Structure to design on (735 residues):
């Protein structure tokens, strides 16, 4: 024991060693030194018991503080911590992809847990028996794969995507070594219905076609929230459209067919069908060309339906009105090309008659008068020079003419020389019949998000087009499309297809673009129906015979779903009879 | 100096508490040990109950998940069975079809399709007395007979 006199200051040991360090270190070491020797100092001051108690008291305070802190923290966690934090691993209903539904919540696509079948051969008692039993319970199991796994050493997967029923069947065999692992799979319960439109998602949950691809990120986001993603289509309309289209296509022995129903005011697609169709489950076995969504990817020279666009452009520019005369008494000569009429009238006709008799001569004259700049401008406004504004990634760009000379203008005026998709056609018809606003087509319920509709023609033009289309159904070529009481207006389209460099009448295309009801204010509820028959095998192959009847059936049956009432107009009663009192005395169609 | 007596008293009270003993063991320690024992038992009981509850919750969540899967499966099945195109094909197989236009009517058209027979409604034929005294009008024919 060293004896030191503590009553006067002595420098702490080590200070010399750390002399070069900062004053902080010096202060700290002095403090430690003082604390260490405090007891001795206190005893030397004859107050030993007091000093010990101070130390105990200090330690007590420190420990109390620590424990109080711990207790408070624990209480806080227990009382106010995230409720059920242990179980709330995100949304319990979360899915990789949300369900796809139609506008009324009917299912189109759904994620269902499927199972992977795993087999551990080491735990199989009798391999031959297991092989036979598995093959019987699950006939689609590949024999070679099963044999390979059974004869192997390790636990391996035998088959993917077992449905719950198949899983139950295998499970009931009570075999050793059989295990299942859940996997989330996309299922399409509708089979062939709306198959092109819905598209497909791969096993990794990525959309690869159709709406699944177009809205991929939004469907995934909806899945994370445990919600469904609604499309604009109405499954009832879709069902009618598909069945009527298929019936017409089979009746007319068509190679392919397209049907689209849209709301012209919002641009929403209510139904979109492409025939022939297939099922996602056996996509590989689909017939040639069936997987193509002809409604947005098929290119067609549409024929006379384009006359609506030419006439609308003529009216909108003010170059023509309903009574402007066109000389269709003889063929229209452009260079060495002669343009003739299919149903030749051989007389001078008003613009309205040109439209009703579908005169190539009349529209060609009008197009040539307007010139390439005006025609190109109106075609651009109508969206005919660019892919349809629908969200589907399959939406194809049109095939445009290289030159815009007079001969091309004449062809364009009656729908030759430009190949567009049916979706573009419907989009343009919608814009002409909703007061002149170009609404991009959309598969989103409520229409395209943030769409800024552009006024492409005047309201007067739009009204005139509606009148013309109705007149064409009542008195022109579209008579077969007149669904009783629904005030259908429309235009037929018939075209021959280019085969080996020449237009071949045996490879034809018939279409019908309709709008109903045509009456009421321009902003009233109005729907467009477009039906196209590709290469019908029966005669006559014109749109009036192959497509218009299908349009009538479709309109007739979907009117109830869409809330369109049957009413009389000045030509027809609500049940479709001719209005007897009406006589066109002046012959002006009014 | 005024504060000193208080400290002295409190100090002596504390002193007495610590000096309060039975068989050489401080009461304060016995009480403390007893409290700790009670706390241990109650915490144990609470934790055991919580564990039971949480396993029950986990079980219920599992059930909900499984039922959810079954519901989804059944919904898919319903969607397959109820798809309009399929129903139409089935209806056509048994000879049904869309209703012909002339056989369709709305509620408002009913009187015009089948006029209300005049004989069976004497009330409407003589509206005036009915409005004034419907009770009498109903009773009168019976009394007359």
């Amino acid at each position: 024991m060293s004896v030191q006199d503590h009553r006067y200051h002595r420098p702490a040991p080590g200070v010399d060693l750390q002399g070069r360090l900062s004053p902080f270190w010096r202060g700290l070491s002095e403090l430690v030194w003082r604390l260490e020797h405090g007891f001795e100092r206190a005893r030397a001051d004859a107050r030993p018991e007091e000093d010990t108690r101070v130390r105990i008291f200090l330690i007590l305070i420190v420990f109390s503080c620590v424990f109080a802190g711990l207790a408070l923290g624990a209480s806080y966690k227990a009382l106010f911590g995230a409720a059920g934090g242990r179980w709330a691993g995100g949304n319990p209903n979360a899915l990789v992809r949300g369900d796809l539904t139609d506008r009324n919540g009917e299912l189109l696509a759904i994620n269902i847990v499927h199972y992977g079948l795993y087999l551990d051969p080491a735990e199989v008692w009798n391999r031959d028996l297991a092989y036979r039993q598995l093959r019987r319970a699950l006939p689609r199991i590949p024999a070679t794969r099963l044999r390979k796994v059974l004869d192997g050493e390790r636990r391996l997967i035998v088959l993917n995507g077992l449905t719950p029923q198949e899983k139950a069947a295998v499970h009931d065999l009570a075999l050793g070594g059989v295990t299942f692992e859940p996997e989330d799979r996309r299922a399409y319960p509708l089979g062939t219905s709306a198959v092109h439109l819905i598209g497909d998602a791969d096993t990794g949950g990525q959309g690869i076609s159709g709406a699944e691809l177009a809205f991929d990120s939004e469907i995934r986001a909806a899945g994370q929230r445990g919600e469904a993603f609604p499309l604009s289509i109405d499954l009832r309309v879709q069902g009618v459209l598909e069945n009527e289209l298929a019936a017409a296509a089979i009746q007319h022995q068509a190679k392919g067919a397209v049907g689209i129903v849209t709301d012209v005011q919002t641009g929403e697609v209510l139904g979109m069908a492409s025939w022939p169709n297939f099922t996602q489950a056996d996509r590989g076995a689909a017939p040639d060309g069936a997987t193509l969504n002809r409604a947005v990817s098929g290119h067609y020279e549409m024929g006379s339906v384009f006359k609506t666009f030419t006439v609308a452009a003529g009216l909108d520019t003010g170059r023509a009105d309903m009574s402007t005369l066109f000389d269709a008494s003889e063929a229209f000569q452009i260079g060495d090309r002669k343009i003739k009429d299919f149903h030749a009238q051989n007389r001078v006709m008003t613009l309205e008659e040109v439209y009703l008799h579908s005169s190539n001569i009349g529209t060609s004259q009008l197009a040539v008068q307007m010139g390439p700049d005006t025609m190109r401008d109106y075609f651009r406004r109508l969206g005919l020079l660019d892919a349809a504004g629908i969200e589907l990634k399959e939406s194809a760009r049109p095939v445009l003419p290289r030159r815009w000379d007079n001969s091309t203008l004449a062809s364009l005026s009656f729908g030759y020389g430009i190949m567009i998709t049916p979706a573009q056609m419907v989009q343009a018809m919608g814009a002409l019949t909703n007061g002149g606003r170009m609404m991009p087509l959309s598969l989103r319920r409520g229409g395209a998000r943030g769409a800024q509709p552009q006024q492409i023609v005047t309201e007067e033009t739009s009204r005139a087009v509606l009148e013309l289309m109705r007149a064409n159904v009542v008195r022109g070529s579209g008579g077969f499309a007149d669904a009783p009481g629904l005030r259908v207006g429309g235009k037929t389209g018939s075209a021959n297809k280019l085969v080996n460099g020449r237009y071949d009448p045996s490879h034809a295309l018939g279409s019908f673009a309709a709008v109903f009801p045509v009456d009421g204010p321009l902003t009233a509820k109005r729907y467009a129906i477009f039906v196209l028959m590709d290469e019908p095998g029966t005669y006559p192959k014109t749109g009036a015979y192959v497509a218009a009847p299908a349009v009538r059936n479709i309109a007739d049956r979907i009117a109830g779903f869409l809330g369109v009432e049957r009413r009389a107009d000045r030509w027809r009663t609500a049940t479709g009879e001719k209005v007897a009192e009406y006589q066109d005395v002046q012959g002006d169609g009014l | 100096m005024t504060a000193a007596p208080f400290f002295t008293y409190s100090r002596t009270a504390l002193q007495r508490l610590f000096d309060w003993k039975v068989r050489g063991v401080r009461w304060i320690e016995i009480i403390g040990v007893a409290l700790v024992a009670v706390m241990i038992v109650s915490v144990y009981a609470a934790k055991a109950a919580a564990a039971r509850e949480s396993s029950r919750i986990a079980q219920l969540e599992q059930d909900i998940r499984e039922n959810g899967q079954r519901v989804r499966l059944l919904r898919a099945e319903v969607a397959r069975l109820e798809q309009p195109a399929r129903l139409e094909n089935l209806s056509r197989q048994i000879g049904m079809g869309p209703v012909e236009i002339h056989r369709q009517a709305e509620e408002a058209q009913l009187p015009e399709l089948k006029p209300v027979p005049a004989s069976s409604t004497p009330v409407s034929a003589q509206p005036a007395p009915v409005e004034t005294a419907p009770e009498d009008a109903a009773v009168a024919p019976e009394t007359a007979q």
Q: What stands out?
A: Residues 123-145 of chain B have pLDDT under 50 and may be disordered. Chain B touches chain A through 28 residues (CB under 8 Å).
